[in-house]
Design brief:
This protein is an alpha/beta fold and about 400 residues long. The protein contains 14 helices and 14 strands. The protein has a six-stranded mixed sheet, sandwiched between helices. Strands 8-7-9-10 form a four-stranded parallel sheet, with helices on both faces. The radius of gyration is 24 Å and the shape is globular. The two termini are about 40 Å apart.
Length: about 400
């Protein structure tokens, strides 16, 4: 994906589900007007979830997820079915493809019930409409939106795409800085360039916050840590906000005067992804950590880990120093996230810039339902440095809990 492409976490995730040979891959090719998915008469062509980022009118940027068949067989088949069900944790819109000749199977009905329990907007595509009689169509009904289509010859595909778009909930948009800054405000972004910074570019949260500042007609000043004091001294107008990389919180907090609001990219991402309140509540579990306790550190992306990686090196070191204990750390990245969290005393998650809001909500809720504290990189770093109250103070929704 190019640097100017819409990030994965900002795309509408559309999951395509159904039995083997129901026509899932054919439907993907039909609605995208491209040969994106391999189509074969052989059952089980799709053996793992396949993610395809693209533009799909009238929806815009989407992530289409082609999933293995829910009627797969054997031990490997059971594992594939499990992965298919897990995809619903990140699915904004679900499409259940039914072979209209065969009708609903027990596997279809089970999955549909699960989708409804997850409260995922769903539409049923009765495929192979061109092979049905009118009386057969009348016998195929379901209590969710549905449409008769033919992936093979394009019957109702245009109408089907419009129907998919209509399923998007009219939710209140997630916000970063819209209610904090106004036009001509100065926002200083502290972006350290060290051995862990990606070569030739900025990390996604920094890009997103900078763009948000610009979209709100404010002024973004981007600096490294050793430039910050000079910038603050030379400005004739007090900055509305300083946003920093969480890793340098202790240094930046000393440089920035108390009368200038301070927060971090990671804390803003927790706000943007909806995990802020749970992360603030969960961080207090740090006070009870003892030697031998298990802590899960989870990242939403996969990347080449540097020698001084924040997730696997810095955070464990800081936590050991703060707790004066030797907990056991386990690590996950990308799409991997344990279903059973009960063995952990704490889950520490990254800013989740590469995950969509539904996936972050699932992970946070999963921890909550299992009574496992859940927090965020920026929140825990601020807490360990004694500046959590200061760094969440700029966020209006927290004024009643400070």
């Amino acid at each position: 994906m190019s640097l100017n492409a819409t990030p994965t976490g900002e795309r509408i995730h559309i999951g395509i589900f159904g039995k083997r040979n129901a026509g899932k891959s054919s439907l993907i090719n039909a609605i995208t007007s491209q040969d994106l998915a391999i189509v074969s008469a052989h059952k089980g062509t799709t053996t793992d979830p396949v993610f395809k980022a693209m533009e799909l009118l009238p929806l815009g940027p989407v992530m289409i997820i082609d999933t293995p068949g829910i009627d797969d067989e054997g031990e490997l088949g059971a594992q594939r079915i499990k992965k298919t069900y897990q995809i619903l944790n990140k699915t904004d819109i679900a499409i259940l493809v039914i072979d209209a000749i065969q009708g609903f199977s027990p596997e279809d009905l089970k999955l549909l019930k699960f989708i409804q329990e997850k409260k995922v907007p769903v539409i049923v595509a009765f495929n192979k409409n061109d092979l049905l009689t009118e009386s057969e169509r009348k016998n195929l009904k379901v209590d969710v939106p549905f449409m008769f289509i033919s992936a093979a010859n394009g019957d109702n595909i245009y109408e089907f795409k419009k129907a998919i778009a209509s399923l998007l909930p009219d939710d209140k948009p997630a916000i970063l800085l819209e209610d904090i800054i106004t036009a001509k405000d100065i926002v200083i972004l502290v972006t350290p360039i060290d051995e862990s910074a990606p070569k030739g570019r900025m990390i996604l949260p920094q890009q997103q916050v900078m763009r948000n500042v610009i979209d709100n007609k404010a002024i973004a000043i981007v600096v490294q840590v050793d430039e910050l004091a000079d910038i603050l001294q030379n400005l004739t107008t007090k900055p509305r906000l300083v946003v920093t990389d969480s890793q340098v919180f202790p240094i930046v907090a000393q440089i920035v005067p108390e009368n200038i609001p301070l927060t971090s990219f990671s804390i803003l991402m927790a706000r943007y992804k909806g995990s802020l309140l749970n992360s603030i509540k969960g961080v207090k579990a740090l006070e009870t950590i003892k030697t031998g306790d298990k802590i899960l550190i989870s990242e939403g992306c996969t990347h080449h880990r540097q020698c001084n990686d924040i997730g696997t090196v810095k955070l464990p070191g800081w936590i050991k120093s703060y707790t004066n204990a030797k907990p056991v750390f386990e690590f996950t990245s990308g799409n991997e996230f344990p279903l059973d969290l009960t063995s952990y005393k704490l889950v520490v998650h990254c800013g989740a810039c590469m995950l969509n809001e539904r996936e972050v909500a699932y992970r946070s809720k999963c921890a909550e339902l299992q009574n496992v504290p859940f927090t965020n990189y920026g929140i825990i770093i601020a807490y360990m440095n004694g500046i959590l109250k200061r760094t969440i103070a700029p966020l209006p929704e927290l004024k009643d809990i400070l």
